Each structure stands twice: as C-alpha cells, then as structure tokens.
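Worked example

This section walks through a single chain of length 398. The input is the sequence exactly as stored; nothing has been trimmed or padded.
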Amino acid sequence: MRTHLTLLTLTLTASLAAAQSTAPSAMPAPSPASPAAQTASPAKPATPGAIVDVPAGHWARAGVTLLIQKGLILGYPDGTFRGNQAITRYEAAAIFARLLSQGVFQLPGVQAQLTPADLDVLARAITELAAQIVTINTRLTDVVTDVDDVKARLGVVEGTLQQVVGVAATKSDVDAVAAQAATKTDLAAVQAGAASAEQVQALEARVAALEAEKAALQAKAAQDQAAAAVSAKAAEPKPGDLPNVTFRPDAPANAYVGGGVQKSLVDGVGYSAVLGLQQVAGGFGVQAAADFNSSARLYSAQANVTRPFGGADALFQPYVGLGGGVLVSPDRQSGASAADGFVSALGGVNYAFTDTLKVFVELDGRYYLSRKGAGTGLADGSAGGLGGGVRLGAKLTF
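Given that input, the structure is written out below as tokens.
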C-alpha cells in the first residue's frame, strides 16, 4: 500500500499543474467519522488567509495555499495547517478522493505525460488503497463490537453495585436496631439480618470477578488493535517492489547515423554513409553523406542543410536539402584521381520503422562545376553539367 501511495504522490505534481487551469469541482463533504486531521469542520472551513502556523516567507507556503484553494487539503477548524504532523491512511484516501472527483487524470495535460500502462498502474493502486481501507474498517468494526460488549458487562456491574449499596444500607439499619434495644424480638431481627451480611460478601466477590473480567477484555481489545496494525504493515510492499513505471521523454531523438546503398547515373551500385541532426535552428537541420564505389574508384563527400516536414512522431517524414561537395574519380586522360566540385539538392523521405530506427530513400541531384573525372558522366566538350543518384538505407536516431 505504501508503494502505491508513493506512486500516486509522484503523479500529484503533474496533476496539480494541470488542475491550476481547471475550476475545482464540488468537493464531497467530509464524513463525520473521518479523522480530524486534514479535514476542516463544515461549519468553520479554513481559508488560505486563516492559516496561522505557515508564516509568510515559509518555503512551503505557496504549495499549501494552492492545495487549499484547490480543495485537495483542508485546514483544521482553528485555522492551523499543522505541517509537521504525520498523515494517516484515511487522510491520504480523502486527499486522493478529492483529486479524482475533480477529474484531474482526465485532463489532456496529464494524459500527455502518462502512457496507458501508467494510468492502469494508478487505477490498480487506487483500487488496492480502497480495499485496504475496507479491511481496516472491518477490523475497527470488530474492535467497536468488543468495546460495546465491555460496556454491556459494565452495565451489569453497575446494577450489582447498586444492589450492594442497598444491602449495605440494610446492614446499617440492623446494627442500629441492635444498639438501641436488646429485646428478644430485636435480637431475632438482628439474627435474621446476618443472612444479609453473607449476601454482601457474595456480591463483593462477584464484583471483584467482574472487574477482573473487564480488565481482561480491555487487554484483549488492545492486543487485537496491535495485531491489526502489525498485519496491515506486513501487507505493505517493500521499497524494492515498486513498479517499474517509465515516462515518455519530453523531446524526441534529434541526432542520427546510418548507411545503405547508393546508385549513381553513371556507374554501378556503391555504398553510402550518412549522419546529421534533424533540428539545429529555425526548423532546419544538417546532414553529411559519403559515397564510395571501390570497383569504379569513385568517392564523394557532401554536406547539406536540410528542412524536414511533418511532426517528429509522424510515420512518414519527407525532407529536402541544399548543399555541395566533391567527387573523386579517375581522370579522363591519365587515369589518375581527379576531383570535381558540385552543388547538390536532396529530396527524400524517412519511414519510422520503430521509435529509433528509420528507413529512408533519397534522391541526390548534383550540378558538377567541372568534368575532370570520368565519374561525373558528362559528355566531352562540356565545362560542367547535371548528374546525381539515389540512396536507400536505414538511420538510427538517438
């Protein structure tokens, strides 16, 4: 039970933040049998201005004022909050009942931070809390029954004592008659009254037995209460049994690294590697890519500024990019390596296979600024021209 109370308390901060924008619902009236702590008398409710034991400047005053304004915790009838006093299980149940009656867990702000599994854990925690309260109420009912039985026995004792008082008065009258006259008639009356003295002794013995029985019943009631407290404490889960509740991060993954295959318009299939950031500033990101084809001796590196479209959690996320790079390929004349610069334009789409793994396909359009290497695929006699290729692969986001 203490575990679930801890879990509920962990979510109370987010619930109160959402509840600040919602008008509080009508609170259920406190039960007359509920504990006095944290429950104000309906005839004299406490208000934030009436709290006399939380001074101005106290680190917790703002929190106390908010809880009382929302009706989640009520002060004592004398205007005090008693912040250092321990909270009971009944008081905790009353606080969470008020919280649930406001429908705080149904607010969009709270549901956005909790997964369905988390809400299920909270529901089961509240159900177990209610079951524990029913069990405690049943045990308290048994104790009250025992106390009522003791009261009934005490009533019998009181009746017996009244009889003893009456007999004692009779004995006094007999003694007075014996002192005033010693006639045979009076003596006979005194002898008859001797039987009353024996009755008094018998009643005194009975009273002593009833007093002992009363003490035994009181001791048994105290033992039952102690046993109920021990059983309730033993039923509480240990700190190591806390449920593993996780919350979704506020910010999605931003960086990524990946690779795949690349096909240019000139040569066969090569390999490609990419890395970058989805968001850097103003909705724009960056991406670097390297392509190589060992059989054709083609190598290229480029960098692009990218602009993704759609939400970060979308299943498909298209993007475009603009940048430049350099291509190294065999020289047309000598066969040695030659470098050609180019301006690039990207167009692609990411498919969210999982939360961290994305599959992508990308078109890489290039405008070569020269045609020294054979990898450009440009015709003889041209100073530059269009080229490009396509990439297919996967990205790992983190």
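What to look for: Residues 357 and 396 are 5 Å apart (CA to CA).
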